[in-house]
């Protein structure tokens, strides 16, 4: 029987509306790019030998990258012939899931998207919850090759195993019941168990637990809420979820490192292991004092995340309150607040930070203060514009007509409906705070030199770029990956919170 061939516009629409197709292309290209980087780093010029472990990882990424591109071709064929994916094509996702054994999250997440036809937000969060715990367990397990481990290593690994088992059970139950309009009452136990595993720093477990509790409490109304639609849209963005995965992974391993990593490996000098190349004992090599770069980067994630979050939260709160008051009351109040902030805004942020640190000294708290003060005007302007817009809406006028006070209207009706742009802006600017933290530490004006922080690690490694480039490459890649992750997440939040997409 002859079939009607789709025209160019229909072909483009079918491909563009299929997330599995775009994710397959992205993951395949990313895997091939990583394979190329591994190949370039697989040859040891000093010893004129090839590194077998790096070559094996390169081959694994190359094989799964090519398989993913082949699956992309099959997806395109199915879409052009029948407009939907065949079961045989989706079953290939189980084969591609093996890529997780090689730490290939790009192909692994694309395979997860391919396996299940209808993917709810809860199912997506459940998958990333388990994936985060498994990756943290795998990375923490590398410590067994070190000369010694932390005293609480076994307890920490046992807790991660328990968390993984609970999250695997939650994934299976969510896959079975998440699409039901009314969840069984015993799902409260699943939600509470997920919130308990969130103590490891796993934000996905926290979000999934709260999502299940909201659905259990609101029942039918939950599927029609704006929050539900926003979470659904965010979960469909592969780049945003990958960005959130890396952030969640760093946060989880930073929390779990209190049990699974030995702080002495990161700060104590070991003159018998100076500038060692990457190996099983030292996965990222050692620096010029024999300190383990792997441990230093893990502990440095604490500082980068702590300073990044706190130096963003402070200006969000202070600038948000000042902008809300300025935009709501207007006139003289607006003029006084905004002109004062204009003076602060006229000073370049990095120069203001340097001046504050020079005046009060270089330490972590002064660094947070220095980065926070310069960001207040930008957040105040954003909140002021939002408040001025929301103040003109009908429900605000109705609240005023019913005799509600100014503070009640401002904090109950206006500010909650003006937070979306602030959330997106804060997510996008956390990356800038991370870069500023590392930059000031690199210049000796940030975190104290003896504390493992990515800028400090990069400063030490920059002196050995020609002879031992890995000492600077790995902390630099960590900074780049974290900033890109926040940018990806910010872009996804911007689209998810856009009311035009309702």
TrEMBL record:
Pfam families: BPD_transp_1. The keyword DNA-binding does not apply. The chain crosses the membrane at residues 21-40, 52-71, 92-115, 121-145, 157-175, 187-213, 242-261, 303-329, 350-375, 467-490. Residues 301-490 form the ABC transmembrane type-1 domain. Its main location: membrane. It is a multi-pass membrane protein. It comes from Paenibacillus elgii. It is found in: Cell membrane. Belongs to the binding-protein-dependent transport system permease family. GO terms for biological process: transmembrane transport. Keywords: Cell membrane, Membrane, Transmembrane, Transmembrane helix, Transport. This is Peptide ABC transporter permease. One of its GO terms (cellular component) is plasma membrane. CDD domains: TM_PBP2. PROSITE patterns: ABC_TM1 (PS50928). InterPro entries: BP-dependent_transpt_permease, MetI-like, MetI-like_sf. It comes from the Bacteria.
């Amino acid at each position: 029987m002859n079939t009607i061939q789709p025209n160019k516009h229909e072909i483009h629409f079918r491909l563009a509306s299929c997330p599995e197709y775009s994710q397959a292309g992205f993951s395949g290209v990313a895997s091939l790019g990583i394979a190329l980087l591994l190949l370039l780093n697989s040859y040891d010029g000093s010893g004129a030998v090839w590194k077998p472990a790096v070559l094996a990882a390169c081959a694994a990424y190359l094989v799964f990258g090519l398989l993913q591109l082949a699956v992309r071709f099959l997806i395109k064929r199915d879409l052009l012939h029948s407009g939907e994916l065949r079961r045989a094509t989706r079953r290939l996702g189980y084969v591609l899931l093996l890529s997780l054994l090689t730490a290939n999250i790009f192909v692994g997440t694309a395979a997860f998207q391919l396996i299940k036809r209808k993917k709810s937000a809860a199912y997506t969060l459940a998958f990333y919850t388990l994936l985060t715990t498994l990756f943290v367990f795998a990375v923490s397990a590398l410590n067994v090759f070190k000369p010694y481990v932390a005293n609480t290593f076994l307890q920490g690994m046992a807790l991660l195993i328990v968390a993984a088992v609970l999250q695997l059970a939650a994934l299976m139950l969510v896959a079975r019941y998440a699409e039901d309009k009314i969840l069984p009452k015993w799902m409260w136990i699943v939600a509470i168990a997920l919130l308990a595993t969130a103590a490891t720093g796993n934000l996905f477990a926290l979000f999934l637990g709260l999502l299940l509790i909201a659905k259990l409490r609101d029942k039918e109304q939950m599927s029609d809420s704006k929050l539900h639609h926003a979470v659904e849209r965010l979960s469909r963005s592969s780049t945003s979820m990958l960005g959130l995965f890396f952030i969640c992974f760093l946060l989880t391993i930073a929390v779990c490192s209190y049990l699974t990593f030995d702080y002495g490996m990161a700060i104590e000098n070991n003159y018998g292991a100076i500038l060692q190349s990457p190996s099983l004992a030292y996965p990222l090599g050692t620096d010029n004092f024999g300190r383990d770069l792997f441990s230093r980067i893990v502990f440095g994630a604490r500082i980068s995340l702590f300073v990044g979050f706190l130096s963003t939260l402070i200006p969000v709160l202070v600038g948000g309150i000042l902008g809300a008051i300025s935009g709501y009351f207007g006139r003289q109040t607006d003029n006084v607040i905004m002109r004062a902030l204009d003076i602060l805004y006229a000073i370049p942020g990095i120069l203001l930070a340097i001046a504050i640190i020079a005046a009060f000294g270089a330490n972590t708290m002064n660094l947070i203060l220095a980065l926070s003060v310069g960001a207040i005007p930008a957040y105040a302007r954003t909140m002021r514009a939002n408040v001025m817009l929301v103040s003109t809406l009908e429900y605000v006028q109705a609240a005023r007509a019913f005799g509600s006070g100014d503070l009640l209207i401002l904090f109950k009706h206006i500010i909650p409906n003006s937070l979306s742009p602030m959330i997106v802006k804060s997510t996008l600017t956390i990356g800038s705070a991370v870069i500023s933290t590392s930059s000031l530490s690199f210049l000796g004006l940030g975190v104290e030199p003896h504390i493992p922080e990515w800028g400090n690690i990069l400063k030490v490694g920059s002196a050995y770029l020609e002879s031992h480039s890995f000492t600077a490459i790995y902390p630099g890649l960590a900074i780049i990956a974290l900033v890109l992750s926040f940018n990806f997440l910010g872009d996804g939040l911007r689209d998810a919170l856009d009311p035009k997409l309702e």
